[in-house]
Amino acid sequence: MAGLERLHAALSNGHGDTRLSWTNRIVIGLIIAASLTAVLETEPVIREAVPTGLFIGLEAFFVIAFSVEYLLRLAAVGVEPRYAGITGRLRYMVSFWAIVDLLAILPSLLLLGGQESFLLRLARLLRLLRIARLGRFTAALNDLVEALRGRRYELLISVAAAGFLLLVSASVLYVLEAEAQPESFGSIPRALWWSVATLTTVGYGDVYPITPLGRIFAGITAIAGIGLIAMPAGIIAAALSDLVQRRRDG
């Protein structure tokens, strides 16, 4: 039992340690390396340049490593009273983070292929959130959640204002541009694509107004989009600043 307790402490940063254990640091490195490998594997030029079977070998290594880690976590979690025994471990296996751990190895174990397999393999990045809940990352995440909760009404108002502005801009461009460009602005849902691209200041340029009134309104909408993006960012920054100041004063 003492061995399981030490293993559990290493995997979960037990004993109140604010630093990530070496075990979790290694897991983070494996997660990043596995995700980067999955991304690079989608590029045909890279696949042709590397030795045959390299990506298959790397994926096999990651699957073995994550499988061993999963089994170790399953064994070590039994030291917690709620997960003790076979029933407790079965309860752990259907918990959210245990399912996320299983997704790290499931695609390869089931010999899945294609884009669906890639998305499941990339889901390994979710496991970084699990580890981020440990050590010093916990305080930072709690601060962010507390700041968002404290300004939730202001954020809701900014989201509502954004939705209203999107609908109004799409409706106006529909009226001004529908006759000139029916394919792009022939309906409000079609015009919404232009509104989203403009108000978020992305501006893809694939759809744009060509009538004089449409261009004038598009300029006004683009300027309004700057404030639309800045509003929630300013609210969150102010909330975090207030939180830090209160802790210093307290």
TrEMBL record:
Alphabetized UniProt keyword annotations: Ion channel, Ion transport, Membrane, Potassium, Potassium channel, Potassium transport, Transmembrane, Transmembrane helix, Transport, Voltage-gated channel
Domain Ion transport intervals = 21-246
Q: Extract the GO molecular function terms from the UniProt entry.
A: voltage-gated potassium channel activity
Indicate how the chain sits in the lipid bilayer.
Multi-pass membrane protein
| One GO-annotated biological process of the protein | action potential
Q: Where is it localised?
A: Membrane
For this entry, the protein name equals Voltage-gated potassium channel
Q: Which residues form the signal peptide?
A: none
GO CC list: voltage-gated potassium channel complex
The main location is: membrane
User: What domain of life is recorded for the organism?
Assistant: Bacteria
Q: Any transmembrane segments, and where?
A: 22-40, 52-72, 92-112, 155-176, 216-240
Question: What SUPFAM superfamilies would the database entry show?
Answer: Voltage-gated potassium channels (SSF81324)
Q: Name one Pfam family in it.
A: Ion_trans
